[in-house]
Amino acid sequence: KLFFTDYGSAAKVERCDMDGMNRTWIVDSKIEQPTALALDLINKYVYWLDIYLESVEVVDYQGRRRQTITKGRQIRHLCGLAVFENYLYTINSDDFSILRINRYNGTDVQALARLDHAKEIRVYQKRTQAAVRSHACEADPYGMPGGCSHVCLLSTSHKARTCRCRTGFILGSDGRSCK
């Protein structure tokens, strides 16, 4: 799945399949300016910052069990969001400090370090990634991803895929080759 935020005419947190199909709103009420998003891949939670409502919130992948982690004026100065173990990590755009927030007790906030001009944060650690299993976009015997001549996108599951073409090409009737 692909998760993303939008605060155009109607603010929301959404998800869709990797090929753009099955677009679903998972949060569409009591939300104004969701500017950063982080996923807990293990427990299947979506965290986001709303700088207008000055809150950090969480829901499960279906948009249920919504909770506010922390709320207050300091949120409007945050950018970027990452989750690892018991903490959320974010950047205070006023002083570029990296903040660590306990995701179960939003009052436990610590400044860890400063990085000049930082706007985004990511945690790279083996435990943050789900185990990789075989999938529909693996290279076929001819080296083509999922048997697609240009681009292979996972669809409704790791067993399904959609072939797409680069700009200027159209997908052939076989659903795999581009012309």
Automatic annotation (TrEMBL):
GO BP annotation list: canonical Wnt signaling pathway
Gene Ontology MF, one: Wnt receptor activity
Cellular component terms (Gene Ontology): plasma membrane
Residues annotated as transmembrane: none
Per-repeat ranges for LDL-receptor class B: 1-43
PROSITE patterns in UniProt: LDLRB
Pfam families with a match to the protein in the record: Ldl_recept_b (PF00058)
Domain of life, per lineage: Eukaryota
PANTHER family noted in UniProt: EGF-LIKE DOMAIN-CONTAINING PROTEIN, VITELLOGENIN RECEPTOR-LIKE PROTEIN-RELATED-RELATED
Protein name: LRP1B protein
Organism: Sylvia borin
